[in-house]
Amino acid sequence: MSQDAFPSIESIPFVERTSKAALGFRHYRPDELVEGKPMREHLRFAACYWHTMRNGLADPFGAPTARTPWDDGSDSIDNCKRRAEVFFEFLRKCRIDFYCFHDRDIAPERATLAESNRDLDVIVAHFEALQRASGKRLLWGTACLFAHPRYVSGAATSPRIEVFTHAAAQVKKAIEVTHRLGGEGYVFWGGREGYTTLLNTNMKREREHLGRFLHLAVDFAKSIGFKGQFYIEPKPREPSVHQYDSDTAACLDFLREFGLLEHLKLNIETNHATLAGHSVEHELAACRAAGALGSIDANAGTDHCGWDTDEFPTDPRLTTKIMLELLAAGGFTTGGLNFDAKRRRESFEPVDLFHAHIAGMDAFARGLKAAAAVRADGRIASFVKERYASWDSELGRSIERGTTTMAQLEQLALTQHAWPVESGRQEMLEHILYEQI
Ligand code: XUL
Ligand code: CO
């Protein structure tokens, strides 16, 4: 296994909060118990292959800046293998237990599907060996159904049946290799499953095709005994102007409409939530209410620009809100915190990969401790409980059960002349919350 891509860095140490060490975890302690469970099991950190190993940090105005001395820039099998080794060295040194990938991140697309599959198998065998040697695990796999020009008008929602067919074959293979690597899940992010103008689009048919495509995947997974969790990842735009999986509500509606809700949970990404005009905690709460909270793509956006900037989530106020929702949902089962995040273009040195992930991991460890403290304190939860206490009455139960009619409510309302509404105390609650961080 490669040991020398980051020669000056050893396994990241655990340091005191006041330490001035350049690299060190100030909050993350994998074995520390929070609410009776080790931090590593609460957080289930994953690094993603596409940003960590394949993102050169180019932007629409400039060339890549990332320094990757281990990478010769070719798509040779040797280069793919070397990259994988460097990635596992990074996972080990940064104490990250899981990872995620797209098929085309780890092995190149060749001239034919058969050749692409053949080379993918060679690389997957290498990943298998690296996993075995390191104990690292695959959180989820996925297929890249958006980069190749054939997917210009969508994959499962392409107007061309040949493109749908190719996408199905690509997903079949991606599920197979995810299964082979013991992946705990498989993600569908819509990519180009949407449209730019209705003038050329049959929306009804495209949505039906997407529903059929997901059923094909579910049936195939069953046929090979893949028991991992399927996820759908909402995002409102980019690359399409309108995406069919635009936010949690749209995804839940889609899954229900096509009979898929029992087969898929959601993978919620912070920056996608903010692009949809929601907070990430809103999206997580919406998933929790539907019993569909699966996994999290951990990142952050910039308020001042409407793009998916995929920044590392370093703000403990953000991570505390996420962890509050996650703890309320009972924590992860198959899911985890996948850093779908890239360094800024100016953070181009290899050591910045460590700075970025450590900052994200420490922010989440801090958020976990703060969320647990908020729950132990109990004031916020009891405020919310008290706020709805009138619904715990006999009348409340009866309305909730559906055994009260509108006419009965009218009778009550005619004799009722006061509405004891109370202050929502938002500022007080925010004060309590931020005190714990
Ligand atoms: C794109 C995005 C993807 C998915 C996996 O915005 O988030 O990387 O997470 O395809
Ligand atoms: Co994502």
Give a description of the structure.
By secondary structure, the protein is α/β, with parallel strands linked by helices. It folds into 2 domains: 33-377, TIM Barrel; 381-434, no CATH class. Helices cover 46% and strands 11% of the residues. Strands 5-4-3-12-11-10-8-6 form an 8-stranded parallel sheet. β1 (33-34) and β2 form a beta hairpin. α10 (280-289) packs parallel to α11 (316-328). The two termini are 39 Å apart.
Radius of gyration: 24 Å
**Residue fraction in strands:** 5-15%
The separation of the N and C termini measures: 39 Å
CATH architecture classification of the largest domain: Alpha-Beta Barrel
What are the segments in which pLDDT stays under 50 over at least 5 consecutive residues?
none
Mean pLDDT: 97
Ligands, deduplicated: D-xylulose, cobalt (II) ion
